[in-house]
Amino acid sequence: MHWLDQPATISDTDRAAFERDGHVTLRGLMPPQELAAIGREITRLTLDLNTEQRSLDERDTYGRAFLQVMNLWEKSPLVGRFVMGQRLARVAAQLLGVKGVRLYHDQSLYKEPNGGHTPAHADQYYWPLASDRTVTAWIPLQDVPMAMGPLGFYSGSHVVPEGRDLGISDTSEEDIPAHMAALGHPYRCEPFALGDVSFHLGWTFHRAEPNSSDRPRSVMTVIFMADDTHLLGALNPIQQNDRDQWCPGIAPGALADSPKNPVIWSAA
User: Fold this and answer.
1) Could you tell me the pTM of the whole model?
2) Contact (CB, 8 A) for 223 and 134
């Protein structure tokens, strides 16, 4: 069996932490050498396909946070094999407590040397999905020490409704951390080694530190949703754009099963 499909052992402690905190980091989940090889292809595609031409000084806060390219699985057989690997998908299903998961989309996040912080936010603000059984796998493609801008989480924040109407912005970075502190949700941010993978729920608030190093921080993310997820009937313009891009042709209220949303792992 290919390593991308080999089942991983998830401890009861990890499952309990994910349920309690809305996030968990699984150390050494992926073999570093093999992941590094795939990472070189992801980074190459990100730099080739990214359309940002402005210098860091010319961009706003969002633009300084990272370069991003979505659905790289459609651009490269190697990346496609990675995104469709059952190892990650099975872990996602186990953490979510569902029988199967399908792909929402993938997203490469490349934080340039001296790139800025990623403001606090919850991913599901952008998603037209009627279920909270959604999870993002955050997969560094090299070691990420504190100086390179690791991801940090507000533990337990997935149950907090306030702030869910804020996209990534200066306002979200001002309001969400203050609100989390007032509610007693601690901010946890630690370095990552190559092979570590974090998983966080769609409504878990998180942010990333700036990259103060002289090296780029390359990360791949894969967003999974329960295989019975339906689309929302009422969409704001941002979610409407997401629906058209990542679930094309699917009507509000219908199962999110477009050709871009294959089931990657199922217990059936």
Assistant:
1) 0.96
2) yes
Give me the half-sphere count of Cα atoms (radius 13 Å) on the Cβ side of residue 193.
9
Using DSSP's 3-state secondary structure scheme, residue 15 falls into helix
- Bridge partners of 154, per DSSP, are 187
Contact call for residues 240 and 128 (beta carbons, < 8 A): yes
| Residue 62 token pair | 């969002």
236 close to 227: Cβ distance less than 8 angstroms? no
Q: H or E stretch including 107?
A: strand 100-111
Instruction: Tell me which amino acid residue 58 is.
Output: E
Listed residue (13, 26, 24) closest to 155, CA to CA: 24
Q: What is the 3-class SS of 142-208, one letter each residue?
A: CCECHHHCCEEEECCHHHCCCCCCCCCCHHHHHHHHHHHHHHCCCEEECCECCCCEEEEECCCCEEE
- Is residue 127 within 8 A of residue 202, CB to CB? The reply is yes
Task: Compute the distance between CA of residue 212 and CA of residue 64 in angstroms, rounded to an integer.
Answer: 12
The pLDDT tens digits for 58-97 are 999 888 888 999 999 999 999 999 999 999 999 999 999 9
92 close to 226: Cβ distance less than 8 angstroms: no
Taking every pair of Cα atoms in the chain, the longest distance, rounded to a whole number of angstroms, is 51
170-202 core/surface letters (b: 16 or more CB in 10 A; e: else) = eebbebbbebbeeeebebeeeebebbbbbbbbb
Question: What are 125-183's pLDDT values in tens digits?
Answer: 999 999 999 999 999 999 999 999 999 999 999 999 999 999 999 999 999 999 999 99
CA distance 210 to 116: 4
